[in-house]
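pipeline stage [seq->struct] | target=Mannonate dehydratase | organism=Vibrio aerogenes CECT 7868 | residues=352
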Amino acid sequence: MKMTFRWYGEGNDQISLQHIRQIPGVEGIVWSLHDMPAGEVWEQSRINREKALIEKAGFHIDVVESVNVHEDIKLGLPTRDKYIENYKETLRRLAKAGVKVVCYNFMPVFDWTRTELYKQTEDGSNALFFEKSQIENIDPITLIDKISKDVDVTMPGWEPERLAKLKETFKQYEGFTAEDLWQNLKYFLEQIIPVCEACDIKMGIHPDDPAFPIFGLPRIIINKENIGRFLNLVDSPYNGLSLCTGSLGSSANDIPDIIHTYCSRIHFIHIRNVKRYENGDFIETSHRACDGSVDTVKVIETLHQHDYSGYVRPDHGRHIWGEEAWARPGYGLYDRALGIMYIWGVWDSLSR
């Protein structure tokens, strides 16, 4: 197991690489060029600059999250081939710099959805929260306006240039089905996986968050059956999964069973916990198994049984000790650091 930590870049993250260096066992930084619009080719000079900065601090750059997929590719528009060619070239440039895994998603419009960024909890911390009834009774534009007022940083999947075209994008998805999305994903994979095989860079698709349809938009990477279908679209070891326990945990998925079944195709793992409620709501919790609906101990135990040697990172944490005043939603320092130590504690106990 190779431990990593997601970082949003110099000048774009209140957490420094020196802070991360003080968390035991972290070997790599999960990074991206977060200001790059979906569909544009990443400049080699910028990739190399980020590589030098991260490696100087003592970390590897093996994992990139994300190289965003342009909406025209998901929609299957005639313009998709241009954006797919750009995507291929970015992959080649990342491979040239030494990147091993790219995490991406194929979710229409939104990369993730919550209704509240700082929901107060009983212990005084706060966390990302999803209220299902609010999603069912709110216009997505209204939700965007509400969430945007609560934060002054850009968030992956909620970039200003994407949100500016939201009404137009929803119009394009009218009548669009899950089968349409499956076919467009297959087309995308058939184009890029040969490039991945040639330059030795593995793709890991992130499950949909949450793992069920919202706003009438299809969601397809949501359960064991669909993950199996996805992996068979292009049956190559380079076509794999970035397994996220929190995304899959938003529904009643048996995550250890998914790991047992597909472990050889899991290139990257996000470990976090969420507490699900009977009404469909869920909230981020600490990484402890007893605090949420995901048996994180069983997840780690299953990975250990398979001698998992891929990349892992702690995912969304609570905001604790007042860090909501400065932390990026879901991406503070303290609870993610605690999460790493919890993961290592379980892993080390199993190893002994």
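stage status: PASS
auto-comment: The chain has one domain: 2-351. The chain has a mean pLDDT of 93.
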